[in-house]
């Protein structure tokens, strides 16, 4: 069976793809060039896709910097230093990003006749993004059941799989290590540059996860 996997090139999406591969699924990663300031993550996505020897790695240009409203797409907004205790929604939130990405993935899954879409959203150690919550995933699942010919006419349900939803970053690192996912190829940093900054939200959550897992993070930090 086929599975479309949303692959950013980061830790979570890479472990998510490893989970799908471990289940014996034929994975079709889909990545997005949304003109994010950290577009270097797409290079990591390509390396991860090559590692898994996928048949096709689809990269879609969505140009979300035309909308703006996020530090990840608008370079006039600074990337804040990380705060793993934050409870508000940070400026690194990209408006409707997962809704848009999942919509593309849903269409791609229909074309491929793939019964699964895998996305590495996480509701435990995350940055407060509303489109990472289980409520959002369930609502999108409900919508997708009515949105395509595959589901409406052919009665082929496309299931949204979220294997990391209830895992901490520590658990995600441990799972990735267990599945021999290429963690050394991943990129989690929100900032530009060859090396990860080590101080943004994403870096701090990642570093804490590796520390709590007792595993050395294989990527280089400034």
UniProtKB/TrEMBL annotation:
GO MF, any single term: zinc ion binding
Keywords, comma-separated and alphabetical: ATP-binding, Ligase, Metal-binding, Nucleotide-binding, Queuosine biosynthesis, Zinc
Main enzyme class: ligase
GO biological process: tRNA queuosine(34) biosynthetic process
Binding site for Zn(2+): 189, 197, 200, 203
Cofactor(s) of this protein: Zn(2+)
Reactions catalysed according to its record: 7-carboxy-7-carbaguanine + NH4(+) + 2 ATP = 7-cyano-7-carbaguanine + 2 AMP + 2 diphosphate + 2 H(+)
The protein's Enzyme Commission number: 6.3.4.20
Reported function: Catalyzes the ATP-dependent conversion of 7-carboxy-7-deazaguanine (CDG) to 7-cyano-7-deazaguanine (preQ(0)).
Subunit structure and binding partners: Homodimer.
The protein's name in its UniProt record: 7-cyano-7-deazaguanine synthase
The species this protein was found in: Propionispira arboris
Gene: queC
